Amino acid sequence: MQIIDGKLVASQVLEEVKGDIDRLKAAGITPGLAVVLVGDDPASQVYVNSKVKKCGELGMHSRKIVLPADASQEELLEVIRELNADASIHGILVQSPPPPHIDEAAVVLEIDPAKDVDGFHPENVAKLVMEDESGFVPCTPLGCIRLLKAAGIETAGANAVVIGRSMIVGKPMAHLLMSKQSNATVTVAHSRTKNLPELCRSADIIVAAIGRPSFVTAEFVKDGAVVIDVGINRVEDASAKRGYRIVGDVAYDEVAPRCRAITPVPGGVGPMTIAMLMANTVKACRQQTGA
Ligand code: NDP
Q1: Which amino acid positions bind NADP(+), per UniProt (predicted)?
Q2: Handedness of CA 95, 97, 101, 107 (dihedral sign)
Q3: CATH 3.40.50.720 domain extents, the chain
Q4: pTM (2 decimals)?
Q5: Which CATH architecture has domain 28-112?
Protein backbone atom coordinates (compact mmCIF):
# COMPACT_ATOMS: atom_id res chain seq x y z
CA MET A 1 0.00 0.00 0.00
CA GLN A 2 1.31 3.39 -1.04
CA ILE A 3 0.57 6.51 1.00
CA ILE A 4 0.46 9.38 -1.47
CA ASP A 5 2.43 12.18 0.13
CA GLY A 6 0.67 15.43 -0.74
CA LYS A 7 3.17 17.55 1.15
CA LEU A 8 6.01 16.17 -0.94
CA VAL A 9 4.21 16.53 -4.28
CA ALA A 10 3.04 20.04 -3.34
CA SER A 11 6.62 21.02 -2.55
CA GLN A 12 7.70 19.73 -5.97
CA VAL A 13 4.96 21.79 -7.66
CA LEU A 14 6.00 24.85 -5.67
CA GLU A 15 9.62 24.35 -6.67
CA GLU A 16 8.60 24.38 -10.35
CA VAL A 17 6.43 27.43 -9.74
CA LYS A 18 9.31 29.20 -7.97
CA GLY A 19 11.53 28.54 -10.99
CA ASP A 20 8.87 30.08 -13.25
CA ILE A 21 8.52 33.09 -10.95
CA ASP A 22 12.28 33.63 -10.88
CA ARG A 23 12.41 33.55 -14.69
CA LEU A 24 9.49 36.00 -14.95
CA LYS A 25 11.10 38.33 -12.42
CA ALA A 26 14.37 38.24 -14.34
CA ALA A 27 12.32 39.52 -17.29
CA GLY A 28 10.93 42.33 -15.11
CA ILE A 29 7.54 40.73 -14.40
CA THR A 30 6.28 39.84 -10.92
CA PRO A 31 3.17 37.63 -10.79
CA GLY A 32 0.52 39.07 -8.47
CA LEU A 33 -2.41 37.52 -6.62
CA ALA A 34 -5.23 39.40 -4.91
CA VAL A 35 -7.19 37.65 -2.18
CA VAL A 36 -10.45 39.22 -1.08
CA LEU A 37 -12.11 38.30 2.20
CA VAL A 38 -15.50 39.54 3.31
CA GLY A 39 -16.08 39.25 7.06
CA ASP A 40 -14.04 37.67 9.82
CA ASP A 41 -14.73 33.95 9.66
CA PRO A 42 -11.74 32.41 11.47
CA ALA A 43 -11.27 29.47 9.06
CA SER A 44 -11.42 31.83 6.05
CA GLN A 45 -8.86 34.11 7.71
CA VAL A 46 -6.50 31.16 8.10
CA TYR A 47 -6.92 30.20 4.42
CA VAL A 48 -6.43 33.77 3.19
CA ASN A 49 -3.36 34.32 5.35
CA SER A 50 -1.74 31.09 4.23
CA LYS A 51 -2.25 32.06 0.56
CA VAL A 52 -0.71 35.50 1.11
CA LYS A 53 2.16 33.95 3.07
CA LYS A 54 2.85 31.44 0.29
CA CYS A 55 3.00 34.29 -2.25
CA GLY A 56 5.63 35.97 -0.07
CA GLU A 57 7.70 32.79 0.22
CA LEU A 58 7.73 32.43 -3.55
CA GLY A 59 8.61 36.07 -4.20
CA MET A 60 5.21 36.79 -5.69
CA HIS A 61 3.30 40.04 -5.25
CA SER A 62 0.08 39.76 -3.26
CA ARG A 63 -2.72 41.99 -2.08
CA LYS A 64 -5.02 41.05 0.76
CA ILE A 65 -8.26 43.00 0.84
CA VAL A 66 -10.55 42.54 3.82
CA LEU A 67 -14.05 44.01 3.73
CA PRO A 68 -16.30 44.15 6.79
CA ALA A 69 -18.92 41.42 7.17
CA ASP A 70 -21.66 43.95 6.36
CA ALA A 71 -19.99 45.21 3.16
CA SER A 72 -22.53 45.49 0.37
CA GLN A 73 -22.57 43.43 -2.78
CA GLU A 74 -21.81 46.60 -4.76
CA GLU A 75 -18.77 47.43 -2.60
CA LEU A 76 -17.39 43.97 -3.26
CA LEU A 77 -18.06 44.21 -6.99
CA GLU A 78 -16.31 47.58 -7.05
CA VAL A 79 -13.22 46.03 -5.44
CA ILE A 80 -13.23 43.30 -8.08
CA ARG A 81 -13.55 45.85 -10.90
CA GLU A 82 -10.57 47.72 -9.50
CA LEU A 83 -8.52 44.49 -9.34
CA ASN A 84 -9.59 43.55 -12.88
CA ALA A 85 -8.08 46.84 -14.02
CA ASP A 86 -4.88 46.53 -11.92
CA ALA A 87 -2.03 45.39 -14.18
CA SER A 88 0.07 44.26 -11.19
CA ILE A 89 -2.59 41.69 -10.29
CA HIS A 90 -2.84 38.58 -12.48
CA GLY A 91 -5.02 36.39 -10.26
CA ILE A 92 -8.08 37.29 -8.16
CA LEU A 93 -9.89 35.13 -5.71
CA VAL A 94 -12.72 35.84 -3.33
CA GLN A 95 -12.51 33.59 -0.29
CA SER A 96 -15.51 31.29 0.03
CA PRO A 97 -17.99 31.27 1.67
CA PRO A 98 -18.94 34.97 1.64
CA PRO A 99 -21.60 36.20 4.11
CA PRO A 100 -25.13 35.08 3.16
CA HIS A 101 -26.25 38.48 1.78
CA ILE A 102 -23.58 38.26 -0.96
CA ASP A 103 -24.62 36.66 -4.26
CA GLU A 104 -21.59 34.45 -4.92
CA ALA A 105 -22.55 33.71 -8.52
CA ALA A 106 -22.69 37.44 -9.33
CA VAL A 107 -19.28 37.91 -7.71
CA VAL A 108 -17.74 35.14 -9.80
CA LEU A 109 -19.23 36.65 -12.96
CA GLU A 110 -17.59 39.99 -12.21
CA ILE A 111 -14.06 38.53 -12.07
CA ASP A 112 -12.18 38.86 -15.35
CA PRO A 113 -12.02 35.21 -16.60
CA ALA A 114 -8.34 35.80 -17.45
CA LYS A 115 -7.70 36.47 -13.73
CA ASP A 116 -10.08 33.81 -12.37
CA VAL A 117 -7.41 31.56 -10.86
CA ASP A 118 -10.03 29.61 -8.88
CA GLY A 119 -11.59 28.51 -12.18
CA PHE A 120 -15.16 29.31 -11.11
CA HIS A 121 -16.17 31.72 -13.90
CA PRO A 122 -18.55 30.15 -16.46
CA GLU A 123 -16.03 30.86 -19.23
CA ASN A 124 -13.46 28.72 -17.42
CA VAL A 125 -16.02 26.04 -16.59
CA ALA A 126 -16.83 25.87 -20.32
CA LYS A 127 -13.14 25.63 -21.21
CA LEU A 128 -12.72 22.73 -18.79
CA VAL A 129 -15.64 20.88 -20.35
CA MET A 130 -14.32 21.67 -23.85
CA GLU A 131 -10.80 20.64 -22.82
CA ASP A 132 -9.44 24.03 -23.83
CA GLU A 133 -6.24 24.25 -21.81
CA SER A 134 -6.09 28.04 -21.89
CA GLY A 135 -8.73 28.08 -19.12
CA PHE A 136 -8.33 27.80 -15.36
CA VAL A 137 -9.29 24.62 -13.54
CA PRO A 138 -10.31 24.66 -9.85
CA CYS A 139 -7.24 24.09 -7.72
CA THR A 140 -8.34 21.13 -5.60
CA PRO A 141 -9.29 18.74 -8.43
CA LEU A 142 -6.24 19.91 -10.38
CA GLY A 143 -4.18 18.92 -7.35
CA CYS A 144 -5.88 15.50 -7.20
CA ILE A 145 -4.92 14.79 -10.81
CA ARG A 146 -1.37 15.83 -10.09
CA LEU A 147 -1.27 13.46 -7.10
CA LEU A 148 -2.52 10.56 -9.25
CA LYS A 149 0.20 11.31 -11.80
CA ALA A 150 2.92 11.66 -9.17
CA ALA A 151 1.90 8.31 -7.67
CA GLY A 152 2.13 6.67 -11.10
CA ILE A 153 -1.56 5.70 -11.19
CA GLU A 154 -2.81 4.73 -14.65
CA THR A 155 -6.14 6.47 -15.21
CA ALA A 156 -6.73 5.43 -18.83
CA GLY A 157 -9.52 2.88 -18.92
CA ALA A 158 -9.87 2.92 -15.13
CA ASN A 159 -13.31 2.96 -13.56
CA ALA A 160 -13.48 6.06 -11.39
CA VAL A 161 -16.24 6.98 -8.96
CA VAL A 162 -16.33 10.59 -7.79
CA ILE A 163 -18.51 11.03 -4.70
CA GLY A 164 -19.77 14.62 -4.68
CA ARG A 165 -20.96 16.94 -7.45
CA SER A 166 -19.96 20.41 -6.23
CA MET A 167 -18.73 23.01 -8.69
CA ILE A 168 -15.53 23.31 -6.65
CA VAL A 169 -14.51 19.67 -6.44
CA GLY A 170 -16.81 16.90 -7.68
CA LYS A 171 -17.84 18.19 -11.11
CA PRO A 172 -14.45 19.50 -12.24
CA MET A 173 -12.82 16.32 -10.91
CA ALA A 174 -15.17 14.21 -13.01
CA HIS A 175 -14.38 16.28 -16.11
CA LEU A 176 -10.64 16.03 -15.57
CA LEU A 177 -10.83 12.27 -15.11
CA MET A 178 -12.93 11.77 -18.24
CA SER A 179 -10.83 14.14 -20.36
CA LYS A 180 -8.63 12.88 -23.15
CA GLN A 181 -5.67 13.50 -20.84
CA SER A 182 -6.91 10.99 -18.26
CA ASN A 183 -9.32 8.75 -20.19
CA ALA A 184 -11.05 7.26 -17.15
CA THR A 185 -14.63 6.00 -17.22
CA VAL A 186 -16.33 8.19 -14.65
CA THR A 187 -19.40 7.83 -12.48
CA VAL A 188 -20.46 10.77 -10.33
CA ALA A 189 -22.31 9.92 -7.12
CA HIS A 190 -24.23 12.24 -4.79
CA SER A 191 -26.72 12.16 -1.92
CA ARG A 192 -29.44 10.57 -4.06
CA THR A 193 -27.25 7.79 -5.45
CA LYS A 194 -28.53 4.30 -4.68
CA ASN A 195 -26.34 1.44 -3.45
CA LEU A 196 -23.31 3.67 -3.10
CA PRO A 197 -21.05 1.10 -1.38
CA GLU A 198 -21.74 -1.41 -4.17
CA LEU A 199 -21.13 1.21 -6.86
CA CYS A 200 -17.86 2.22 -5.24
CA ARG A 201 -16.72 -1.41 -5.05
CA SER A 202 -16.63 -1.37 -8.85
CA ALA A 203 -14.16 1.50 -8.81
CA ASP A 204 -10.45 1.36 -9.51
CA ILE A 205 -10.23 4.97 -8.33
CA ILE A 206 -12.48 6.59 -5.72
CA VAL A 207 -12.46 10.33 -5.14
CA ALA A 208 -14.33 11.27 -1.96
CA ALA A 209 -15.52 14.91 -1.84
CA ILE A 210 -18.51 14.70 0.44
CA GLY A 211 -17.84 16.68 3.61
CA ARG A 212 -18.77 13.87 6.01
CA PRO A 213 -16.16 12.49 8.39
CA SER A 214 -15.09 8.89 7.73
CA PHE A 215 -18.05 8.30 5.38
CA VAL A 216 -16.21 5.95 3.02
CA THR A 217 -15.67 2.73 4.95
CA ALA A 218 -13.98 -0.55 4.02
CA GLU A 219 -17.18 -1.89 2.45
CA PHE A 220 -16.92 0.81 -0.27
CA VAL A 221 -13.49 -0.25 -1.43
CA LYS A 222 -12.31 -3.21 -3.46
CA ASP A 223 -8.85 -4.62 -2.94
CA GLY A 224 -6.24 -2.70 -4.90
CA ALA A 225 -8.30 0.46 -5.37
CA VAL A 226 -6.82 3.95 -5.30
CA VAL A 227 -8.55 6.35 -2.89
CA ILE A 228 -8.24 10.14 -3.02
CA ASP A 229 -9.71 11.77 0.07
CA VAL A 230 -10.63 15.41 -0.48
CA GLY A 231 -12.57 15.83 2.76
CA ILE A 232 -11.53 18.27 5.45
CA ASN A 233 -13.77 17.79 8.48
CA ARG A 234 -13.39 18.95 12.06
CA VAL A 235 -14.33 16.37 14.66
CA GLU A 236 -14.33 17.02 18.39
CA ASP A 237 -11.37 15.51 20.19
CA ALA A 238 -10.89 16.36 23.84
CA SER A 239 -7.33 15.00 23.73
CA ALA A 240 -6.33 17.43 20.96
CA LYS A 241 -4.84 20.81 21.89
CA ARG A 242 -7.46 22.74 19.96
CA GLY A 243 -10.30 20.48 21.08
CA TYR A 244 -10.77 19.09 17.58
CA ARG A 245 -8.86 17.26 14.91
CA ILE A 246 -9.12 17.19 11.13
CA VAL A 247 -10.30 14.00 9.43
CA GLY A 248 -11.13 13.20 5.83
CA ASP A 249 -14.22 11.70 4.21
CA VAL A 250 -12.56 8.29 4.29
CA ALA A 251 -12.26 5.99 7.33
CA TYR A 252 -8.52 5.81 6.74
CA ASP A 253 -7.56 3.09 9.22
CA GLU A 254 -9.96 0.50 7.82
CA VAL A 255 -9.75 1.57 4.15
CA ALA A 256 -5.98 1.97 3.77
CA PRO A 257 -5.09 -1.73 4.14
CA ARG A 258 -7.29 -2.53 1.13
CA CYS A 259 -5.80 0.12 -1.13
CA ARG A 260 -3.10 0.14 -3.71
CA ALA A 261 -2.66 3.83 -2.89
CA ILE A 262 -4.41 6.36 -0.66
CA THR A 263 -4.07 10.01 0.33
CA PRO A 264 -3.94 10.76 4.06
CA VAL A 265 -5.75 13.64 5.79
CA PRO A 266 -4.03 15.86 6.65
CA GLY A 267 -1.06 15.79 4.29
CA GLY A 268 -2.79 14.55 1.14
CA VAL A 269 -4.99 16.72 -1.08
CA GLY A 270 -4.92 19.74 1.28
CA PRO A 271 -1.38 20.96 0.54
CA MET A 272 -1.98 20.54 -3.20
CA THR A 273 -4.76 23.11 -3.35
CA ILE A 274 -2.57 26.08 -2.45
CA ALA A 275 0.27 24.81 -4.67
CA MET A 276 -2.06 24.64 -7.68
CA LEU A 277 -3.38 28.13 -6.87
CA MET A 278 0.18 29.43 -7.14
CA ALA A 279 0.63 27.52 -10.40
CA ASN A 280 -2.62 28.97 -11.78
CA THR A 281 -1.52 32.49 -10.84
CA VAL A 282 1.77 32.09 -12.70
CA LYS A 283 -0.14 30.70 -15.70
CA ALA A 284 -2.45 33.76 -15.57
CA CYS A 285 0.56 36.08 -15.39
CA ARG A 286 2.17 34.42 -18.40
CA GLN A 287 -1.02 34.64 -20.43
CA GLN A 288 -1.61 38.29 -19.56
CA THR A 289 1.94 39.43 -20.17
CA GLY A 290 2.77 37.12 -23.07
CA ALA A 291 5.95 36.14 -21.18
P1 NDP B 1 -20.32 20.29 -0.96
O2 NDP B 1 -21.07 20.27 0.33
O3 NDP B 1 -20.48 21.44 -1.88
O4 NDP B 1 -20.65 18.96 -1.78
C5 NDP B 1 -20.74 17.72 -1.14
C6 NDP B 1 -21.22 16.69 -2.11
O7 NDP B 1 -21.32 15.46 -1.41
C8 NDP B 1 -22.60 17.00 -2.69
O9 NDP B 1 -22.61 16.76 -4.08
C10 NDP B 1 -23.52 16.03 -1.96
O11 NDP B 1 -24.60 15.54 -2.73
C12 NDP B 1 -22.58 14.87 -1.68
N13 NDP B 1 -23.08 14.11 -0.54
C14 NDP B 1 -23.45 14.60 0.67
N15 NDP B 1 -23.90 13.56 1.44
C16 NDP B 1 -23.80 12.45 0.70
C17 NDP B 1 -24.13 11.10 0.93
N18 NDP B 1 -24.67 10.70 2.10
N19 NDP B 1 -23.92 10.21 -0.06
C20 NDP B 1 -23.40 10.61 -1.24
N21 NDP B 1 -23.06 11.88 -1.53
C22 NDP B 1 -23.27 12.79 -0.56
O23 NDP B 1 -18.79 20.10 -0.55
P24 NDP B 1 -17.42 20.44 -1.36
O25 NDP B 1 -17.40 19.72 -2.64
O26 NDP B 1 -17.18 21.88 -1.32
O27 NDP B 1 -16.37 19.78 -0.35
C28 NDP B 1 -16.35 18.40 -0.08
C29 NDP B 1 -15.32 18.12 0.98
O30 NDP B 1 -14.05 18.49 0.50
C31 NDP B 1 -15.49 18.90 2.28
O32 NDP B 1 -15.04 18.10 3.37
C33 NDP B 1 -14.58 20.08 2.11
O34 NDP B 1 -14.13 20.61 3.36
C35 NDP B 1 -13.45 19.44 1.36
N36 NDP B 1 -12.68 20.37 0.54
C37 NDP B 1 -11.33 20.26 0.62
C38 NDP B 1 -10.53 21.08 -0.12
C39 NDP B 1 -9.05 20.88 -0.03
O40 NDP B 1 -8.30 21.80 -0.28
N41 NDP B 1 -8.59 19.68 0.29
C42 NDP B 1 -11.08 22.12 -0.98
C43 NDP B 1 -12.52 22.10 -1.09
C44 NDP B 1 -13.28 21.26 -0.32
P45 NDP B 1 -25.82 16.50 -3.22
O46 NDP B 1 -25.27 17.26 -4.38
O47 NDP B 1 -26.87 15.54 -3.59
O48 NDP B 1 -26.15 17.37 -2.05
Answers
A1: 164-166, 232
A2: positive
A3: 139-270
A4: 0.98
A5: 3-Layer(aba) Sandwich (3.40)
